[in-house]
Amino acid sequence: NEVYVSKAINQGLGLSFNDFINKLRVEHAKILMTKSKMPVINIALDSGFNSKATFNRVFKDIEKCTPSQFKQQNGLKS
Fold first, then answer.
1. Tens-digit pLDDT profile for the chain (78 aa)?
2. Are the CB atoms for 23 and 58 separated by under 8 Å?
């Protein structure tokens, strides 16, 4: 049941369902960035985002840096 799962996530983690999903998507994207040489747009789409702009915005909200900055800070090639 969607309502039950959403309520459990909200009460248990203090996150909305969308915030929880976006956090999982960003974690998946970070793994892809460290283990592959896929372009950022492909990583965004593979992580469940509909556009690079949305991916960049959500990534920055969660990680406090852009995907490009994350790659640079971790010694990854763009």
1. 788 888 998 898 888 999 999 999 999 999 999 999 999 999 999 999 999 999 999 999 999 999 999 999 998 876
2. no
Inter-residue contact 26 to 54 (CB < 8 Å):
no
* The token pair that represents 18 in the structure block: 């969308």
Residue owning tokens 């965004």:
44
Please state the pTM of the whole predicted model: 0.88
Label each residue of the chain as H, E or C.
Answer: CHHHHHHHHHHHHCCCHHHHHHHHHHHHHHHHHHHCCCCHHHHHHHCCCCCHHHHHHHHHHHHCCCHHHHHHHCCCCC
